[in-house]
Amino acid sequence: MTWRQVEERMAAGARTVLFAAGSTEQHGPHLPLVTDTMLGDALAARVADLLPGVILAPTVPLGVSTHHMAFPGTVTLDEDTFKAVILRCCESLAAHGFETVLVLPSHGGNFAPLAALRAETEGRVGGARFVPYTDLQKFVGALAEAAQERGFPPEVSGSHAGEAETSIVLALRPDLVDMDRAEAGFGGRFDEPTARRLFEHGTRALSETGVLGDPRPATAQAGEEYLDRLTGLLTRFFEPYVS
Q1: Using CB atoms within 10 A of its CB, is residue 42 exposed (0-12), middle (13-18) or buried (19+)?
Q2: Which GO terms describe its biological process (predicted)?
């Protein structure tokens, strides 16, 4: 959008803005570093299309990726810097007159810092409501549920660069996927103890390739199904906050 388009939408009554918080980090030997940012772009655009009156802002392309720093190409913010970036983005949007700022994390490391920031701000930033989505287990669970309906257990769909994420990138940008390099990684369940181990000790504590799951069965059709499932989850969450 141009600034005039934003001005016109606001003049017509739009007061809610949405942006995603992605990352630039390893996604195994077969997916691009910008996987989470592409996912954020896609999900935010789809959610905004389903919620009239919501204006779409650009995705923040960096997140908390400390647990992936053992892999070259990963660029991380520490939690305080990430929260400061999100806070400043929200303050900027509030200064233009937005009354509600919705934030959609598309990278696992961003969920907890967003929850902490919401608690610290009591859900108000620059006079606007600050509404981040923060339930990582429901987000991952939506992918696992969709995978199981197609016959794939969570150990295959995975939580990072597995069948689910690989399918999503095949649906969005197949030219960026190198399936010849796809290989199975960590095959356990991504439950809360596993998530703690990942964030405390790094991805290599679980997988030498950076993959959690098995990307080899991935298809673009499955990717569209995953995107639909996540879009539904996020739309239902954000809808009550749209003004």
Answers
A1: buried
A2: riboflavin biosynthetic process
Per-residue pLDDT reduced to its tens digit, 106-145: 999 999 999 999 999 999 999 999 999 999 989 999 999 9
- State the architecture of 3-135 in CATH terms: 3-Layer(aba) Sandwich (3.40)
Give me the residue spans of the domains in the chain: 3-135, 138-227
95: Cβ contacts below 8 Å, ≥ 6 apart: 126
Judge contact between 114 and 134, C-beta under 8 A: yes
pLDDT tens, position by position, 9-60: 999 999 999 999 999 999 999 999 999 999 999 999 999 999 999 999 999 9
Round to whole Å and give the CA distance between 31 and 176: 7
Q: How many CB atoms lie within 10 A of CB 98?
A: 25
For residues 169 and 218, what is the distance between their CA atoms, to the nearest angstrom?
9
Residue 158: exposure state from Cβ atoms within 10 A (0-12, 13-18, ≥19): buried
How long, in residues, is the chain?
A: 243
